[in-house]
Amino acid sequence: TLYEINGQVQFDFPIDLNNSYIQGLDSNDDIITRASGNIFEGSTGGSIRNLTLRATGGSVFNLTASATQNLIFRDSVVSGSNSVGTISGFGLVFLSIVQFAGNTNGITYNNIPQLLISNVGWFSNNSGTYEKFTGTFNLIEKQGGFSHVESTSAIGFDVSTSGLTVNSGVLESVVFTGTNTAGYVKPYTTGTYTGYNFTNNWIVRSSGILTESDNNAVGDFSVDYAVGSGIGVSFNTSNPSNIVKIGTASSVSTSLNLFR
Fold first, then answer.
1. Are 55 and 78 in contact (CB under 8 A)?
2. DSSP for residue 48
3. What residues contact residue 212 under an 8 Å CB cut-off, 6+ apart?
4. Which residue among 50, 115, 198, 247 is least packed, with the fewest CB closer than 10 Å?
5. pLDDT (tens digit per residue) in 15-37
């Protein structure tokens, strides 16, 4: 079922998507508002397109679904809301070309096997934590867009929650900008290298934050044996071997930090 929004429509009760399409023709003029409470609630997915969403006294999303449900949100604006809200449990969540402006609190993604975020923009007049990740994800891929972090209490990208598990993460071509550089990323509390933000399950190439990738790795070490002599080094059977070993004067030792 397709529902078309024309002009500004104020809702008094939350919307259960029920696997429908909700869309406008012009995201600047076709607006869903709710003065108190949440706009979208329930356990089903659907598609939301070409709209402005504004929950001045509540959250835009309060959705908890099963892995059989999908949510598509694209070509839209979220502005002036108390909170963007929570999206949890969907099998697939895809955001594309969404602008966030003037929201007091951001969004939390939880337990989503496949989360795809493309060309999403967070303006400097947002506050709170823009994007927070909790639970378990098979894949998080965020490409393009920007996070403009100005408020001293704002956080652009939060992966600090204990127990967060991301099997494969990509953060690429996102521009982190603004005066609050310390708030660009709230890093993992464990599993990172000193001074970095992510575990090595992530590939990170984004302006404003450190690059984290295994594409290039450099290590220095020295061994010294007489000509014609040396020491045997055995590697494990993984292909390729996942243990780096260097011979010392009397033994074979495992070296650390040669790679990220």
1. no
2. E
3. 196, 197, 198, 200, 202, 203, 204, 260
4. 247
5. 999 999 999 999 999 999 999 99
